[in-house]
Structure of Aspartate--tRNA ligase:
Amino acid sequence: MEKRTTYCGLVTEKYIGQEVILKGWVQKRRDLGGLIFIDLRDREGIVQVVFNPDFSQDALAIAETIRSEYVVEVRGKVTERAAAVVNSKIKTGKIEVQVAEVNIINKSETPPFQIEAETDISEDIRLKYRYLDLRREPLANTFKMRHQITRAVRNYLDESGFYEVETPVLTKSTPEGARDYLVPSRVQEGKFFALPQSPQIFKQLLMIGGFDKYYQIVKCFRDEDLRADRQPEFTQIDIEMSFVDQEDVMAMNEGMLARIMKDVKGIDITTPFPRMTYAEAMRDYGIDKPDTRFDMKLKTLNDLASKMDFKVFSEAVKNGGAVKAIVVKGAADKYSRKDIDALQEFAKIYGAKGLAWVKVVEDGLNGPIAKFFDEAITAELIKLTGAENGDLVLFVADKSSVVNASLANLRNKLGKDLGLIDENKFNFLWVTDWPLFEYDEELDRYFAAHHPFTAPKPEHLDLLKSNPEAAEANAYDVVLNGYELGGGSIRIHDQEVQAQMFEALGFTKEEAEEQFGFLMNAFKFGAPPHGGIALGLDRMVMLLAGRTNLRDVIAFPKTASATDLLTEAPSAVATAQLDDLHIALNIKETANTEEEKEDTK
Amino acid sequence: MEKRTTYCGLVTEKYIGQEVILKGWVQKRRDLGGLIFIDLRDREGIVQVVFNPDFSQDALAIAETIRSEYVVEVRGKVTERAAAVVNSKIKTGKIEVQVAEVNIINKSETPPFQIEAETDISEDIRLKYRYLDLRREPLANTFKMRHQITRAVRNYLDESGFYEVETPVLTKSTPEGARDYLVPSRVQEGKFFALPQSPQIFKQLLMIGGFDKYYQIVKCFRDEDLRADRQPEFTQIDIEMSFVDQEDVMAMNEGMLARIMKDVKGIDITTPFPRMTYAEAMRDYGIDKPDTRFDMKLKTLNDLASKMDFKVFSEAVKNGGAVKAIVVKGAADKYSRKDIDALQEFAKIYGAKGLAWVKVVEDGLNGPIAKFFDEAITAELIKLTGAENGDLVLFVADKSSVVNASLANLRNKLGKDLGLIDENKFNFLWVTDWPLFEYDEELDRYFAAHHPFTAPKPEHLDLLKSNPEAAEANAYDVVLNGYELGGGSIRIHDQEVQAQMFEALGFTKEEAEEQFGFLMNAFKFGAPPHGGIALGLDRMVMLLAGRTNLRDVIAFPKTASATDLLTEAPSAVATAQLDDLHIALNIKETANTEEEKEDTK
């Protein structure tokens, strides 16, 4: 048979009366009144092809042997469907193809699961047969969208004068940040490459090299324990610009996101995006990536709590912690004590020791701690929180980090549970003025909140030594609907400042030199001011495609144990391969294998 | 100072009379008659800025402190240059900028080498200071071109309905092909990922998944000993299509290359490209990637040689080898005996034991072996080779592979040496009908000439068992000016054929199952016919940019020992990192380290 004339999913009314050649997969076969109907599928959709003995006895005979997922080609005439059998759900629903000729191109065994939009097959099975899973329309559509998104990004950045430059995958291990994936060198015994956690240093070197505007859509790697929204390899839209300030990078990025929304979703979003400082986000939402599609802000009640006779509250404040509350509008009647207990259990996940609550009723407050609220305190609570008759007020009193984490997550949960979120909204938001450092209590040292190349605000330079915790950075995160979409900063371009930064992070001069000497060296030869941003492509696709699982937007994803169930990577390799790389296995015997040894004695 | 108004390199006559703000690097400072002239450089080029005390005494004072590679910003008025000082070599040569204000943004130490187009600084130094090397105009231009090429590729493929899909970097090690880079798994003790040598299997799985048209510009990895035109990580334009035959893939590829040539070089190239079978290429050029920009074809003289009394010739044929010749037009007088000896030494690199030669003179042949050519043989030689009076004829007699390799390389050398090559020509060529297998004498087994997924010609299926060497593939290479630009094939989509292929390659059923079971399994569930191509992006950029070194087209390349001289990757890592990965160093003590031990006793 000749080449196909179009895709199955594109055979609309305009083909009526024409002969078409189509190639695709058999979605479904139905035998009805001496006729055979087949839904033929390709990446563009489904078309109904009809085998009618009046049209071709031979084709009908072949059709009788056709099963699901066979690959077939058909030649036939497009006819209009009778009004009664029009399927308005699909683009090809007004026509069908009367088959004159059919060939089976390839057969299929009965697949392990049916190829259909909705499936309750376990993800493990679907990952093992990923090529079948990818035939499912929702997944196929996700990858179309992923393509459209990168296309929009490239078009925007190309038109804005950015050059795409590739940076190395085999690069240098640095102890800062997450765990590196290592690659042993064959040529240099005992040495290792690392897969990049981001091209951060290379893009800065490109700026020092005068490239001025760089971008790359690039794979990055982190050997971390995986959660549902993490993958060992992930894709980043990586951008860097010279001679810019924070406003330039933010404006460029707003333009890019607006372009994506327009090209991919057909939505005009408003720029500039709303902004919030990190401090405001933590104060009002308890989290650095607020979902602003609904209100229910956190209210700080420290002053009020100090005045109360309720020790849980007053002690928390006294110990340097906080008391905050959220108001669940009109929820007083909806939430039983049992329901509230469940909320408390949820809050405990985030470290809260308890969840205090009151219901606002006509004549005051209700609930086990209502007694601690006298008239004045109640009035102040009402004033501070805006709570009204019929509202439920939830309190957490603890150290600030626990208060924020538990109430922020409770807020997000309630937003979903109560249907407060308009799923059609895309709320972009900047979170600015980040702290430069984060203090790690366990390791008793400061870490860079973003990374060690982030520029302190010039007026905070002195704080690097005197009060690191108070130092703020020219850093900015872009948030979409409660997810961090990306983050960036103006970078240090002065070797002195960079040296101070490494010192503040606890590096000795020698360590800084050994790990980042080449960058410090580069700063000596005319580094321009520069800054940039990196956005997580996988997460962006997930959000725009309305998925909740990162694995749905990666063609061949890995499971939580970083396994590819399809190819069964990682796998054992030949000892000779390891010898070549000057390494050997070094497997600690676990209790388990000891037991096994016992068993085999 | 405000934002720049344009790039330095773009300040042409149209700015005359306007005030501009420019930011860039100081290329050169000249002090002349109380004025200071600075060539200010950014990625778009150079502009001359003038510090004149009549215009700004302050600016002049600052200018006196400015050195090469300082980063500065200037505000000034664009004026026309006097006719006598117009520089027609640069775009901004008709103007200069009279500086009203200047700021030093960042200083520079004296760089280890001057930033100029031509340099004789060693490559090692330039790689160590790659960020400075990248400021050199020829290199910067190469990366602009690289960007333009990928842009043209994406535009063409996007418009042609291809989806870009990312395939994994952490994937499965397979013993076939080159040596893998391995990545130890932390989660799965004793197991390893491999970095992909190509996304071959994944793109085939995408076809089985119904994606229909796939592309990706993707990093691939081979842990091989490096030559000037190899890098451990390289970039491939990777393409796959379903329901296509060889002609479809070739036509698509021709369209893409034509688009690149048009968009990037402004050249209209003719499609379809000329074609040559592999057998013809080996016969006429001795090589599978002929440079067709000049003639000098290899002439096969086996029949003639058999008839001759010259044992070197006749024995070669008798032993199953070949005798071939190339005619160097008009070179009889140019090449002395010493010159020809040098050519012989060159031929020996490729295994030739000697290089026989005759010069065609008015009354016959000249040279040490002329005596073996009687009148009839001479006439036949003249007829077969087209040699004329004044030509030099070079012969190699040996086994075919040696004859071909030595004459092909000699031909390429002579083409260059004699200026026979029009460097402005871009000769694209298809080499088709490849053998399916290559025989490795050392290992005494067949290898896939392309890869084990290449489809045999349907009519050659029986040869897989009976006569593998004669089996041909639906495979095609695209060649540009003597370089392999890319290669592709129609793939096997039938599990039976794939199983036969693995068998022919010496895999046991178990080995095939273990390594490629998931692919064979996928073939069971409706694999469409499919094929594709992969092109080497680095090499393409190198050829179009007129470079001869792959490192010039890679932003951060590695040396022949796979080292990044800038970051000093690979490097030693902490033992704790290795412990996490369940590996240990396994360094064999070499004679050298033994000696060192002796020394330290």
